[in-house]
Amino acid sequence: MAETTPARVAPENRETWTGNTGFILAAIGSAVGLGNIWRFPGVAYESGGGAFLIPYLVALLTAGIPILFLDYAIGHRYRGAAPLAYRRMKKKAEALGWFQIMLSFIISVYYAAVIAWALSYFVFAFDLRWGEDTAGFFVGEYLQVSDPGVSTTIVSSVAIPLAVVWIAVLVVLALGVAKGVEKVNVIGIPLLGIAFAGLVIRALTLPGAMDGLNAFFTPDWGALLDLDVWIAAYSQIFFSLSIAFGIMVTYASYQRRKANMTSSGLVVAFANSSFELLAGIGVFATLGFLAFRQSVQIDELEGLTGPILSFVTFPAVISEMPGGNIFGAVFFASLVIAGFTSLISILLGVAATVQEKFGLSWRVSAISVSAVCALISFSLFSTTSGLLALDTVDQFANNVGIVLSAIVMSVLVVWVFRRGQLLRSHLNAVSTFHLGNWWLALVGIVAPVFLVIMLVQKLITLVSEGYEGLPGWYVGIFGWGTLAFALVMSAILTALPWKDRDDSAFRPWPELEEENR
Ligand code: PFF
């Protein structure tokens, strides 16, 4: 009950968003990203088309929104980036915060590479530089992909836009939460909405569009019996809502003390899913046009997922379309904006963590974190072995790492540290949309049970079948190695001392029946 909360707000000098709108736009900016545009349409199509909407909605309601609220509650009550917020909740939980931040750090490094490709393709759209053979152009001429292995040959066509992306990240982060990150979102998100609405309207007026939509929405009910389809739905929701990465914890920690958290969360979650659906409609209307031009059925088209959809199939459609240059430029600009607003959210989380743990100034932390990530991003993804490394890291970080993080988070918070009721009271004290015990049941029972089943199934497949026929040593380094790296680093970073931090004065607000520290 917002009216009955104590009026006094503890003084603190933490920067905040300028208000609820700024926070909501920034959180939508984090959620709406490459995952909505290139991940969702393909995943949905492969996983039962229209029928996929059922596991998708179930995942959103049983795990997505409840865990988003959990992230918000922890960040808003304990006012820190993930490691500090978890530590303030319970000292031993710091390592979980680091694990989440390590996963974010890993994702930022390849996420930036995809934005760099989109930036190049934005320029290529003006003269349709990809030519007739778009697959050959992307893999050969542009990325210069080599065999599985680690190559040190830098591809300048990728390195230059990658440098632009990282310089932009550095500048925005250095400007801070309100003047940098929030401002970019306040401008970028409405712009993205307009651009994307334009694209979808244009796509729907193309010949063949309706066949595309039919292919997208025609349900394959049998898919609902396939566990992999449910796994795909849960992974999509986690990645898309940016939850269990420690990033929404950090975002909520910059929200003012008196802030309507749950209602904002609902706005963010539904805006994200609406955007995702819109992207599905736009992409499939466009593919309907491609099938129409080639006189084939949609299911005979290839390359409907991931990077190939955006960087091979879409350029092919754009070349065939009247006014394709403009459509192409707007499409790739949308990818850049959507991706960039998500990338800065990830880096904000990492920079805030480094700032708090090592007692640095905001600027020094923002600049050093961007510089280190940029360097790693360059060495891994501007070389000729980038594409494959990216795909493998993505698979392990998202389908294993983040699911593990969500399970550990909900089990620790609800069952081990018994903070569920306290966090529920916190959210209810500051918000207008009140959570009942159903929230605890979802976060503490339903979500972890589903997630454990998914994780076990995924691990069995990865151990018994490997990944995409890649050599064992390669999956060992880029796949399992990614997870091992995140785990080991989180143990090391947790063990390091906090610099210049005396937390004894910290009091969670509002004062609720207090936790036994
Ligand atoms: N939600 C983003 C997307 O859908 O592309 C990706 C993302 C952003 C994942 C921030 C994780 C994160 F912390």
From TrEMBL:
Q: What keyword terms does UniProt attach to this protein? A: Membrane, Transmembrane, Transmembrane helix, Transport
CDD domains tied to this protein: SLC6sbd_u1 (cd10334)
The compartments listed are: Membrane
> Which segments cross the bilayer?
21-40, 52-74, 95-124, 154-177, 189-209, 229-254, 266-292, 326-354, 366-390, 396-417, 438-460, 472-498
Principal location class = membrane
Does the UniProt entry include the keyword Transmembrane helix?
yes
The record's PROSITE patterns line, in alphabetical order, gives:
NA_NEUROTRAN_SYMP_3 (PS50267)
Q: Which domain of life is it from?
A: Bacteria
Q: Does the keyword Transmembrane helix apply?
A: yes
**Any one GO cellular component localisation term in the record:** membrane
**Listed NCBIfam families:** Na_transp (NF037979)
Q: What is this protein called?
A: NSS family neurotransmitter:Na+ symporter
- Give the classification, highest ranks: Bacteria, Bacillati, Actinomycetota, Actinomycetes, Micrococcales
